[in-house]
């Protein structure tokens, strides 16, 4: 063992962690006694990066987190125990590489289609595979009971892939950044301003 212990958060129960392999930062996530999911970024030196994060709505538990190096985003899945969302048992949330939320949460396990039983599901697990497959999210399903047991603890999984939009904010509006864009940049020196460049053809316009 090397190094010393790091206090990342408090009042935590079930937890998960993933590494941003691009920026070498970790995202730790846990559920707390207030029925919320919290998170904290940690840099490669063991120092806390930024402030503590609050993710998802009320009554979300047992987070599982992974990182997609292609989209440069984290995916977090969580168990839902909200009576007002009886048909949704597992939700997902995208986060940027700095831990900020990207868009709204979305259902991963949706029970609105016909299934037997009402017990629910156990907390999710997930792992990133490749650019082609994305993440595989796994959970223990308590609804089917296909093996003949009383509770019905069967294993189910679902692939979740983060879609990447084409950069459309380029100078010649042809949906890619190429020599024509660079020619326009040279012809118009005002575009060399970094903020303008990022807005028009830089990586910031690729969401």
Describe the structure.
The protein is globular. The chain is mainly beta and 207 residues long. A hairpin with a 4-residue loop joins strand 5 (60-68) and strand 6. Mean pLDDT is 74; it is low at 113-118 and 201-207. Helices cover 8% and strands 43% of the residues.
The major sheet is characterized as:
4 strands, antiparallel
Please state the oligomeric state of the protein chains shown.
single chain
Secondary-structure-derived class:
mainly beta
Shape: globular
In which range does the helix fraction lie? Answer: under 10%
Question: What's the SSE blueprint?
Answer:
Blueprint: E1 12-20, E2 25-32, E3 37-43, E4 48-55, E5 60-68, E6 73-80, E7 88-95, E8 101-110, E9 125-130, E10 134-141, E11 154-160, H1 179-187, H2 194-200
Antiparallel strand pairs: 1-2, 2-3, 3-4, 5-6, 6-7, 7-8, 9-10, 10-11
Top keywords for this entry?
207 residues, mainly beta, four-stranded antiparallel sheet, 43% strand, single chain, 8% helix, 2 helices
